[in-house]
């Protein structure tokens, strides 16, 4: 076993899914037609928001950048609010997506907004980035699948082969153009890698668009014809100038913004090697100890916070880390817990 080997302590929150995604159901016209009468439907607006019911009334509107509100929500739990299919339409709308089935209940997703029902309060609508970590497994899987698939439909209205218009097909899991060419929902794979020294230090980096103090692990998209492991080596070398060894798989998570799949790894690098942040991609990179990382984790998520300090101003750098909805946070939590 390699130095510093560890596993994810918890399942990444957006990989939780209780739905049966049986392709045969989508291809059965009788099931598709009849399922609508007993379906529960998730309504998602163009910003990826859906109404959420919390176990405890928060007493305020939630916003993605309102860190205090979302920290207060942690542990309370939430459920996405679904509708009865026939309350929205007599039959599945053309753009509706059959997400799957759970406990005998079919679940669909449609585009819409608070105006669909007079009872909806726009302040109760939340998106996946903000609410995903606090939803129950069913709701998390529903919203993740809905956002990913509806985003693809929004971007696939013309055929990539001949440019003709496409229409939904197979209960929302394909689109067919005027000349019969079929297209299917796309997923763009990306690697995300926690680089450590095999002992007690981990590498963090900051993108130029992030406020000072906000850090995460390194990530990048997989190129055509490239393996996941090769991408890890290339991306780390490009972004910070380090060669890594002992590349090990950790887990994966959908990241439908708009259609990524984050594939998590960890790898070992020499902490004494020169860091060379890539111009335009990485503003700053630094090694922190496990003790420093634990202190940063205890400060909570980075949403809405900006200490306005450079991470190098003290020997105990002020570091703010990703929220719980990201696999990056699961990876950092797990590495921090793995040490003595």
Automatic annotation (TrEMBL):
Q: Which EC class is the enzyme in?
A: hydrolase
| Swiss-Prot/TrEMBL catalytic activity | a 5'-end NAD(+)-phospho-ribonucleoside in mRNA + H2O = a 5'-end phospho-adenosine-phospho-ribonucleoside in mRNA + beta-nicotinamide D-ribonucleotide + 2 H(+)
Biological process GO terms, please?
NAD+ catabolic process; NADP+ catabolic process
The Nudix hydrolase domain sits at: 185-310
Name the UniProt key words of this record, in alphabetical order: Hydrolase, Magnesium, Manganese, Metal-binding, NAD
Extract the GO molecular function terms from the UniProt entry. metal ion binding; NADH pyrophosphatase activity
Domain of life of the organism in this record? Bacteria
Q: Which cofactor does it need?
A: Mg(2+); Zn(2+)
Gene Ontology cellular component?
cytosol
Matching InterPro entries: NAD-cap_RNA_hydrolase_NudC, NADH_PPase-like_N, NudC-like_C, NUDIX_hydrolase-like_dom_sf, NUDIX_hydrolase_CS, NUDIX_hydrolase_dom, Znr_NADH_PPase
One family from Pfam that matches here is NUDIX
Q: What is its EC number?
A: 3.6.1.22
Record bears the keyword Membrane? no
What family does the entry list? Belongs to the Nudix hydrolase family. NudC subfamily.
Q: What is this protein called?
A: NAD(+) diphosphatase
Organism, by scientific name, is Pseudonocardia ammonioxydans
């Amino acid at each position: 076993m390699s130095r510093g080997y560890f596993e994810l302590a918890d399942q990444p929150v957006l990989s939780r899914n209780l739905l049966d995604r049986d392709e045969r159901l989508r291809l059965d016209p009788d099931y598709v037609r009849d399922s609508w009468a007993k379906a529960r439907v998730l309504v998602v607006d163009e910003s990826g928001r859906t109404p959420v019911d919390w176990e405890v009334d928060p007493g305020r509107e939630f916003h993605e950048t309102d860190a205090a509100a979302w920290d207060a929500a942690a542990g309370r739990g939430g459920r996405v609010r679904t509708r009865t299919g026939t309350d929205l339409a007599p039959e599945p709308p053309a753009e509706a997506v059959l997400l799957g089935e759970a406990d005998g209940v079919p679940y669909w997703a449609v585009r819409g907004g608070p105006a669909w029902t007079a009872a909806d309060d726009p302040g109760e609508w939340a998106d996946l980035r903000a609410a995903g970590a606090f939803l129950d497994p069913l709701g998390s899987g529903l919203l993740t699948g809905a956002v990913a698939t509806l985003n693809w439909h929004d971007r696939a209205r013309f055929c990539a082969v001949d440019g003709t218009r496409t229409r939904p097909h197979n209960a929302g899991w394909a689109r067919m153009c005027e000349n019969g060419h079929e297209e299917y929902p796309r997923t763009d794979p990306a690697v995300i890698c926690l680089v450590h020294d095999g002992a007690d230090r981990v590498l963090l980096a900051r993108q130029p668009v992030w406020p000072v103090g906000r850090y995460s692990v390194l990530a990048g998209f997989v190129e055509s014809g490239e393996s996941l492991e090769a991408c890890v080596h290339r991306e780390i070398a490009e972004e910070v100038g380090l060669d890594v060894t002992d590349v090990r798989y950790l887990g994966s998570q959908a990241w439908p913004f708009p259609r990524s799949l984050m594939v998590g790894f960890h790898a070992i690098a020499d902490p004494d090697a020169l860091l060379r942040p890539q111009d335009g991609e990485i503003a700053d990179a630094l090694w922190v100890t496990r003790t420093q990382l634990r202190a940063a984790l205890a400060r909570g998520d980075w949403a809405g916070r900006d200490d306005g300090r450079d991470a190098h101003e003290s020997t105990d750098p002020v570091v703010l880390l990703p929220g719980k909805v990201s696999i990056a946070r699961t990876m950092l939590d797990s590495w921090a817990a793995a040490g003595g």
